[in-house]
Structures are given as C-alpha cells and as structure tokens.
Design goal:
Length: 372
C-alpha cells in the first residue's frame, strides 16, 4: 500500500502532517511526499519517506508555470500509483484534485485548511481570481473518489453553497492535532510583568497591524505589560510584513520581536496571554498549542479562530480589524489574574478533549481505509 502526500512546503509537512504520515507508515503504508525543495527535505528522507521535488510557486500566476505544475503532479501520480493521495494546501488540492481525475488513483483526501486569502481579498482583480478559484475547486473536489477534510463548519458550508463539494464528501477534523506531552500546562509565573505573545507567520492578515496598534494604545494608557512577536517573515505571501516593518516595531516600548522560534512550548510557558487577531483561518495551530499550554487566548470572531476556543471560558473573542477592542481584551486579561488562570486551566481541558494528536491520527487513518 502506498500513500502520496502532496504539499507546497517541506517544513509545513513536518509541522502539520508528520505524525499522521508516521502513523500511516506504522500501518504498513509506503509513504511518498512531494514538496518544493527546502532544508526540511532531508528530515523527510530521514524518516524513511520517499521524497519527490515538484515545481510549485506560492503566489505565481504565470499560465505556463502553473500548467507545468499541474502536468508534473499528474505525471507523479501516474508514476507512484498511490493507493491513497493526500493533498494539503491550496495549489496541491487544486492541481492534485484535477490531475487525479485523469489517473487510476481511487482514494483522494483533500485537506482544505482554510479559505482565507481567496475570500478576503477585495477589488476587481480579486473578484476575478475568486471566480476562477471557485471553478477550480468545483472541478478538483466534486468527485466520488474524493473526501474533503475541513477544519471548521463555516468553510464546510461555504464550499457546499458554492457547489464545490457535496455534504456527504466532507468531514470535519478540528486542526492538525497537538502533542499534549510536548505542550504541557505549566503554571504561570505570576510575580513578573505579564507577557502577551503574538505567534504566527508575520502576515498582516493575521492581524499584525491591529496588534501593533493595540500595544500603542495600551502603552499610552499606562497598562503594565510586556509584548512579543514570535514568527518568521513569509515574503512569498502578498500580505507578509517586511524587514523595514520589523525595524519600526523594535522602536515601540515594551515590545520585542523574537523572530522564528523552534521551541514554541517554551515560548508559551514564558507567556501569560496568547493573541491571534487573524482575519480568517482554518483552525489555527497556535491557538490549540496555547490552550494545551494552559494559556488564555484572545482571537477574532471569524471562521476558524472562534472554533479553536470556548468563548469566555478558554479565551476572549474580539471583532476583526478592531484594535481598540483588542486592546480592551488584552487589558482585561493582563489585569485580571484570576480570570486569566481559570481560562488557561479550561484551555488545557479543551485541548485534551478535542485536539490530542492521537485523535486526529485515528480520524485520518480511518479515512485512508474507507473505500468510495
């Protein structure tokens, strides 16, 4: 039995699908992984997987280039002849889904982790891209051989309404899972100044501008807290911050920019509140990691984000793109230690109940074994 994962970035495969692929390997699957090139490829190979390099541009729209990507994926599927084809991230889902219609593979799993960029952008050009994108989703996903994994009910209903999928094709899995032994609930240090952490790729549609403005408002108000930004630039994304932005943020009092941190469990251990004021998500891994770490969270009342918390129990919801309400929520949790700690304890319980990696692995293996 062979399984082929197609995913844009090798590091994303490691961070979001490695435990599932290892479990499939233990079940007897020969695991193939197709990604762009990158340093993480060596780690993929060291895990005993067969790696295939494929040409995928993150935001490219050159027709010859995109057709080449589609043709390469079609050839790869025909050469590997997988029993299960698992597609992750937008272009692999679209191109892999289309290509699979013209191959003998009979089990396709498409993981749609979020519909943010396609449906958030505004303007005439964005409208045209949206129409094209919807058409591609319909052709890629609306097939009897395809099971579509979605992370929140809003995205599921949207794809059904767009006639991109049928309800019976879909299944909800809340995120990519969390290792509860790595992200442990360690009591906060209540003697030091509270630390508020933004942790995500440095994209403005993650709510970066609103977070920065909230910090300025809180500093002006005299609220005692320290702030940090954890995450890397993603210059392949149109909404990425730049080095110039980072240099400007470094001048803001009480704010430090830590950049990429490999050990996120330590980051959360040293934090008191975790903030993600994103515009839309699938189901953000950072929020379930924070919950597992026993930390209260603040996020936006949008698809994906609101599905990762229990409002007023494990964290607070604020309106999207509202820096004033974000500042108010931060002040509330910074100043109310008892509430913050209670939310952290409830967050750990939520993570144990809903987000354990073992549960997510079991759900995926069950899908792999289903016949259409």
């Amino acid at each position: 039995m062979k399984i082929l994962y197609i995913i844009n970035e090798p590091w994303f495969f490691l961070s979001h699908r490695l435990p599932i692929a290892l479990a499939a390997q233990e079940q007897g699957y020969r695991v193939h992984v197709a990604t762009r090139t990158g340093e993480a490829v060596q780690v993929i190979i060291k895990n005993g997987f067969v790696h295939h390099e494929i040409p995928l541009t993150r935001n490219g729209s050159s027709v010859p280039s995109e057709l080449n990507s589609l043709l390469t994926i079609w050839k790869l599927i025909n050469n590997v002849k997988p029993d299960v084809l698992h597609l992750v991230t937008i272009k692999p889902v679209l191109y892999g889904g289309i290509a699979s219609r013209f191959t003998s593979v009979n089990k396709v799993v498409a993981a749609v982790s979020g519909l943010g960029t396609l449906f958030l952008a505004e303007g005439v050009k964005a409208d045209l891209k949206r129409k094209i994108g919807v058409g591609l989703y319909r052709f890629a996903l609306r097939s009897k051989k395809t099971t579509v994994i979605l992370q929140n009910p809003d995205d599921k209903q949207l794809l059904i309404d767009l006639k991109a999928v049928k309800a019976e094709q879909t299944t909800l899995i809340r995120g990519s899972g969390i290792d509860l032994s790595t992200f442990q609930s360690i009591p906060e240090n209540l003697n030091d100044t509270p630390v508020v952490t933004f942790a995500a790729r440095l994209l403005f549609d993650k709510g970066l501008a609103e977070y920065i403005e909230a910090i300025r408002l809180l500093n002006k108000k005299g609220v005692v807290a320290n702030y940090q930004i954890v995450g890397d630039l993603d210059l392949g994304n149109n909404t990425s911050a730049t080095e110039k932005d980072i240099e400007e943020w470094k001048t803001i009092p009480n704010l430090v920019v830590l950049g990429y941190q490999e050990d996120m469990s330590t980051v959360f251990r040293d934090s008191n509140v975790v903030v993600l004021p994103s515009y839309r998500e699938g189901l953000p891994k950072v929020l379930i990691e924070a919950a597992a770490s026993g930390r209260a969270v603040i996020t936006t009342d949008v698809p994906g984000c609101r599905d990762a918390i229990e409002e007023n129990k494990t964290g607070l919801l604020v309106p999207v793109k509202d820096s004033k309400e974000l500042a108010n929520a931060i002040e509330k949790l910074v100043t109310d230690t008892e509430l913050r700690v209670e939310m952290g304890i409830a967050g750990r319980r939520l993570a144990e109940r809903e987000f354990a990696i073992e549960k997510v692995i079991e759900q995926h293996l069950s899908i792999y074994q289903q016949t259409n």
